[in-house]
Amino acid sequence: MCRLAPAKMRSSLAVIECFHEDDRMVYIDPDECIDCGACVPECPTEAIFYEDDVPDQWKGFIERNATKSQECPSAHE
């Protein structure tokens, strides 16, 4: 969901281990996410939602996050 530089998220959320990244986006691993909501106000593009609140046009990113978070390295490291 985040199309800005992943470092913008990492700088404020370094302790959250559910984030994974590639050179384009930051992905949230739904199995590692504890649904605390700490990342929601920190997202510079306002692109993070609780799963039940994801707007219809972004629903495809739910599966993409699940898949890509398994393929990409942790942003925590």
Briefly, what CATH class? Alpha Beta
Quaternary status: single chain
Strand order of the largest sheet: 1-2
Class computed from helices, strands and strand pairing: alpha+beta
CATH architecture assignment:
2-Layer Sandwich
The low-confidence parts are none
Main sheet record: 2 strands, antiparallel
Query: How many independent structural domains?
Result: 1
> Per DSSP, what share of the residues sits in E-state strands of 2 or more residues?
5-15%
| Basic shape | globular
Q: What is the CA–CA distance across the termini?
A: 20 Å
Q: Output mean pLDDT.
A: 82
Number of strands: 2
How much helicity do the residues have?
10-25%
Number of helices: 2
